[in-house]
Amino acid sequence: MVSLFGWRTVARSARQARQRPGRRGGRVTTLGPVLVGGLLVALLSGCGAPGAGSAGTDPAAGGFTGSGGVAAGAGARGSQITGERVPPAPVPSPAPGQPAPGQPAPTPPAVPDVPRQSADLAGQPAPASPPVRVQVESLGIDMSIEAVGLDGTAMALPANPAVAAWYRYGSAPHSPAGATVIAAHVDSLVYDLGPFARLADAPGGTEIVLTTADGATQRYAITAIDTVEKQSVPWAGVFDRAGQPRLTLVTCGGEFDYEAKRYLSNVLVSAVPVP
Which span out of 43-47, 97-101, 260-264 was modeled with the highest average pLDDT? Predict the structure, then answer.
């Protein structure tokens, strides 16, 4: 090191080396500038920091080039030289109802075509006139009709079986759609047998005439008569307000339960309008 030899000692050694003859194979060998340069390089290399001579040989110290030097731009860990891998940034989860990245957006559901109708009162059809009388001439039936609602969950009926009832929340005789429902008791312990008791034996095509409060009449022809146990009656269809205009007459029938004092079935008379 320079601190041990000094620059004068180095120069003197160099002069002596040029003057000292040597013998190698009978020839004189002179130590020239090559030796001096080598010594200077060796001495100057000792001025570095401890361990500087192995710089560039430790990948963790800043990148290994294979030539004893630090690679240009090295010094940051995680480069391609060191072989460390940087984990990719996490992909955020899609928001609820949104497609995942790279996925096509879902097709929105088709919007149904909702029918619209004017709420203008002037454009609404006039309410149908309620029925007030029912006649079946061939069976000797001629009864007045009362407009009724519900008695609990069932259609209300007059106590007198000689008086029929019209369900006023349903269709009327001249309504453009739905069933006009007329019902009556078949008999009573107080009033005896009622006129509707004769409906069960009416032949097909029997004419029924309804008279409305405005004096108009609507004629019907019987198409079917069914006796159905009460628990099996399709009441939703009986009181249906959709479909073609029609008439349904309802009374009791079938076997009589003397303990419960009621009939076990209903008689359903279906009729369609006729000119």
Answer: 260-264
